[in-house]
Design a protein that fits this description.
- By secondary structure, the protein is of the alpha/beta class.
- It has 2 domains: 3-199 and 326-375, Rossmann fold (3-Layer(aba) Sandwich), CATH 3.40.50; 229-320, formyl-coa transferase, domain 3.
- It has helices at residues 23-33, 69-80, 93-97, 101-107, 132-137, 141-144, 157-182, 192-199, 201-208, 246-255, 272-283, 288-295, 315-320, 356-362, 367-375, and strands spanning 14-18, 37-43, 60-64, 84-87, 112-117, 186-191, 229-232, 238-241, 302-304, 323-326, 329-332.
- The strands form 3 sheets. Strands 3-2-1-4-5-6 form a 6-stranded parallel β-sheet, with helices on both faces. A 3-stranded antiparallel β-sheet has the order 7-8-9, covered by helices on one side.
- Helix 1 crosses helix 7 (157-182).
Length: 379
């Protein structure tokens, strides 16, 4: 996990992460998997993470008591040599600690200062508590997902992880490129609301063009279309189909031994409810494995619906190495992939403060400085 042993296209990028939950750690995982040297500032005395906390893999941990001025000064010294910093506290917390962007950018004008929140740094909800489902609820995303009777939260994929952590990583790297070109650092205000709304861009465009109904199970991609959805098999397991294009749809019908002449047109929307029921009856006649034998490998836009227990051993996933078994369990491999500078899981989650002395030395602290921090209880 030492900087000299890291690999990936971000090798040499130095990042300070202030420990948090959800989207911040996910951003840190993405950057670490691609080789960034990340020092995570953890609260001194906090409980250690479990090895299964995937989002915390691959960073070094320094534990500080940020109520001590010596610890704050140590953070600022780390910031002086960092390319980027990110934190996920409510607006104003870092300022009260003496580590806000004005102070940090004064110490390092090229610094990229990332701020991860749900509602954003400004606005009427900025100081209000919330979680993933609340943030994406006001973007239209929750309303669009679910059954006719009830909207459903799409895990934390559209909010915390996709709209939050992934956008933060993207924003940090974009700002680092700008800083290296111009010498000018800046603040990246990453709000889950903003990211989730951005992810909804294609649907807002379709809605404006009249191609998308603002209701659930009324559109091609939300469960209304008989040829884009999931169906239960005779063994209780499920399959997915998605042949949107007529030529792929024709292949599905042929491979599934469904007579196209007995069906209305693929995009005859008034016939969709009846077609869905007919498809459900057909797919219920065979097991999932039997459907896989018939449809896998053909351009029918088909895949079995796998559980989390099944996915790591699925042959296509095994062939690509989508999952890796490391530190005693299956977990997602680094993504995306690079031909010349492949990323890697750089190590398991670190115990709080596990690398305090080592990381501080690597980032330019003298032995006496580290000793002093220990003596006053700051580290």
């Amino acid at each position: 996990m030492r900087a000299s042993r890291r690999q990936g296209p971000l090798t040499g990028l130095k990042v300070v992460e202030f420990g948090g939950i959800g989207p911040g750690p996910f951003c840190g995982m993405l950057l670490s998997d691609l080789g960034a040297d990340i020092i995570r500032i953890d609260r001194k005395g906090a409980a250690d993470p479990q090895v299964t906390e995937v989002l915390e893999r691959g960073r070094r941990s320094v534990a500080f008591d940020l109520k001590r001025p010596e610890a704050v000064e140590a953070c600022l010294k780390l910031i002086e040599s960092a390319d980027a910093l990110f934190e996920g506290f409510r607006p104003g917390v870092m300022e009260r600690l003496g580590l806000g962007p004005d102070v940090a950018l004064k110490r390092n004008p090229k610094l990229v200062y990332g701020r991860m929140t749900g509602w954003g740094q400004t606005g009427p909800l900025a100081q209000t508590a919330g979680h993933d489902i609340n943030y994406i609820a006001i973007t239209g995303a929750v309303h669009a997902v679910g059954t006719r009777e009830k909207p459903l939260a799409p895990l934390a994929l559209a909010g915390d992880l996709g709209g939050g952590g992934l956008y933060l990583a993207f924003g940090l790297l974009a700002a680092v490129l700008h800083a290296r070109e111009t010498g000018q650092g800046q603040v990246v205000d990453c709000a889950i609301v903003d990211g989730a709304a951005s992810l909804m861009g294609a649907f807002y465009g379709s809605y404006a063009a009249g191609r998308w109904k603002d209701e659930r199970e009324a559109n091609v991609l939300d469960g209304a279309a008989p040829f884009y959805g999931t169906y239960q098999c005779s063994d209780g397991k499920w399959i997915s189909i998605g042949p949107l294009e007529p030529h792929f749809y024709a292949i599905l019908l042929d491979k599934a031994q469904i007579n196209a002449a007995d069906l209305p047109g693929q995009y005859s929307r008034t016939d969709w409810p009846a077609m869905k029921q007919r498809f459900a009856n057909i797919f219920a006649q065979r097991t999932r494995d039997e459907w896989c034998a018939l449809l896998e490998g053909a351009d029918a836009c088909f895949a079995p619906v796998l559980s989390m227990a099944e996915a790591p051993s699925y042959p296509a996933n095994v062939a690509r190495g989508v999952f890796v078994n490391t530190h005693g369990f299956d977990q997602p491999a680094p993504a995306p992939r690079f031909s010349a500078t492949p990323g890697a899981i750089q190590g398991p989650p670190a115990a709080r403060g596990q690398h305090t002395d080592e990381a501080l030395r690597d980032w330019g602290f003298a032995a006496q400085e580290i000793k002093t921090l220990r003596a006053v209880g700051a580290a």
